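Re: the request from the purification team.
They wanted to know what the chain is likely to look like in 3D before they choose a buffer screen. I agreed to run a prediction and write the result into the notebook, where they can find it.
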Amino acid sequence: MLILHHAPQSRSTRIVQLIAEMGIEAEVDLRLTQIPRMDGSGGRDPGNPHPEGKVPLLEHDGAQVSESNAVMLYLTDLYPDTALGRPVGHPSRGAYLSWLAWYGNVFEPVHLLHFAQLSHPALSASLRDVPAAVARLQAALAERDWLVDDRLSAADILVSSTYGWLPQLMPDDARIRDWVDRCLSRPAMRRVSAEDKARAGA
């Protein structure tokens, strides 16, 4: 049995959405946990074994996997027949790994810095900025409907989640807006979002 430590309406929501999209919900024990929130509510849950008290944290056969992109890669490699990943040997494996890593290394950091109104030449030199990140999305989606190849992957769920949480940051680009809508409007995604809101209000 897989165990996912999940805080409603947090970064781990996209992992729950991926699990639903993969159709493996019966294989996962969802453990609800608290985390410190930006508004000062919540707090660290002693029942959450994440070393920093964060989510997501996936446990499987004694292994612990943290960070959204790592958890997504682990799950899609563990269940290669669900088609949300790209297994070793697949021609799109390189692109799949690159988009998962790019999210955590570039896309989320530049949006957080923009949201916090922080800038520094060293950050711009290393991470670039939001316009550069958006340009990369535009280039990818100008060629295809999904980031990796011709079908949805966990990378689409991961990257589009930023605009699900911060729709005010979505660029005024028809291709990107259409892609985000296609990602977030899928039945599994909508169902998990509704369930998460109910859990958060409980």
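For the purification team: Residues 18 and 35 are 21 Å apart (CA to CA).
Please add any questions underneath this entry.
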